[in-house]
Amino acid sequence: MTVIYDLPGHLIRRLHQISVSAFTAETAAAGFDLTPVQFAALSMLEENPGIDQATLAGLIAYDRVTIGGVISRLEARGLIERTVCESDRRARTLRLTERGASVLRTIWPAVRRTQEVIFADLSDDERATLLSLMRKIADANNDLSRAPLRAATGRPDQDTSGS
Questions:
Q1: pLDDT, averaged across the chain
Q2: Residue 94 gets which letter from DSSP?
Q3: pTM above the 0.90 mark?
Q4: Across-strand partners of 51?
Q5: For residue 132, with 0-12 CB atoms within 10 Å meaning exposed, 13-18 middle and 19 or more buried, which class applies?
Q6: Among 5-14, 87-96, 106-115, which stretch is predicted with the lowest mean pLDDT?
Q7: Rounded distance, CA 48 to CA 135, Å?
Q8: Would the pLDDT of 161 be above 60?
């Protein structure tokens, strides 16, 4: 057997390709034109309205430079809006529009079907074990990523100075 077929990195790359393909197929079949990263951005903005671009990038573990293009495309489609931050006029805060919130609500069944496609041949116990192990690997190696996952530490539209 070819050695690369048992290398974790090779398998992770293949699984990523499969995941993106399944996501695209399920969401397109439901009438959506959204990438997994765009979906992640919308989801995170629903949970964290008013965050800035850099915070969003950290929350979805996406490159801070590349996230700008994602945000521009979502804004052009009317799914998010950027506004000047009241406490820091240089910063822009991000929020879902009504249209963005509607897309997010209605795309969820297709996203759930994607997970079922990916996990089709695994039992419930195997699914839980695989997710647990993937989280463990991702958490243990987060600092090795070019775009590490970062927790929100404060939002530009919130005064965290205590005054």
A1: 91
A2: E
A3: no
A4: 94
A5: exposed
A6: 87-96
A7: 22
A8: no
Domains assigned to the chain: 3-144 (1.10.10.10)
49 in Cβ contact with 42 (< 8 Å): no
Query: How many angstroms separate the CA atoms of 122 and 153, rounded?
Result: 37
Q: Can you give the length of the chain in residues?
A: 163
What's the CA gap between 159 and 163, in Å, rounded?
8
Round to whole Å and give the CA distance between 77 and 75: 5
Contact 43, 104 (CB under 8 A): yes
Closest CA to 155 of 68, 72, 86, 100: 86
- Report CA 22 to chain centroid distance, whole Å: 16
| Residue 33 tokens, joined | 């034109």
Which amino acid is residue 55, in one-letter code? T
